[in-house]
Design goal:
By secondary structure, the chain is mainly α. About 70% of the residues lie in helices and about 0% in strands. It is built from 8 helices and no strands.
Length: about 220
């Protein structure tokens, strides 16, 4: 009986390479299927939340960010947009002027036209940064009030703990930027009291100035 010739090494190597390639394709296809299932499930959850009116704050923030992306202005400076939108008279005037000259342009394009004027952009960005500071300060004050309310009702054992890494960082920042000298041998409670006494985070010691009334 005739014997079959032994396969050549080069043929075996090609077959192995082909099998590996097919395996990789199958693995990628499986990942795509899993990814599609997760995407479908996420869309289903979002649709249910919208229908029930139960979207979380994070859902709403993400949804508005998606609108900015689709509208072509996600890349435009967010402080500048916030500063512009806080002044309805300027927003209406500048957007309407840009739209009159470019009637087929979408919002992203109109914002780019508005901010092509460097004076407008600089003013709006300064105003947006000031508004962001006020928003963060208000949120920080609410969190501080809640913390103090919890501590009034709860245990004070935390005050005996060692100073935290964040407290150490904040004390160093206060010393560098404010010229203060922190007391020695602080624990968590005494560090908390000293930080509050000097005004907390230096970023909130003084509000940013209001930009002057815009004049072109």
């Amino acid at each position: 009986m005739d014997t079959l010739p032994a396969p050549r090494v080069s043929d075996i190597e090609r077959n192995i390479t082909s099998l590996r390639a097919r395996l990789l394709v199958l693995e990628q296809a499986e990942k795509i299927r899993l990814g599609e299932l997760k995407t479908i499930a996420a869309h289903a959850r979002q649709a249910k939340q919208v229908a029930e009116g139960s979207r979380t704050r994070a859902n709403e923030v993400f949804a508005h960010g998606a609108i900015a992306e689709r509208g072509g202005y996600l890349h435009i400076d967010d402080y500048a947009i916030a500063g512009l939108e806080a002044h309805g008279n300027l927003y209406a005037l500048w957007i309407a002027s840009a739209a009159a000259a470019n009637p087929s342009t979408d919002r992203g394009g109109l914002l780019q036209i508005v901010f092509a004027n460097q004076g407008r952009f600089t003013w709006c960005r300064a105003e947006g940064a000031r508004l962001a500071w006020e928003f963060v300060r208000a949120a920080r004050e609410r969190e501080t009030a809640l913390f103090h309310a919890r501590q009034a009702r709860g245990s004070k054992h935390w005050r005996k703990n060692a100073i935290t890494e964040f407290q150490h960082y904040l004390i160093t920042l206060i010393e560098v930027r404010g010229g203060f000298r922190a007391p020695a041998n602080l624990n968590c409670g005494r560090a908390h009291d000293w930080i509050a006494q000097v005004g907390g985070h230096p970023d909130f010691w003084a509000p940013p100035a209001h930009p002057p009334v815009f004049d072109e």
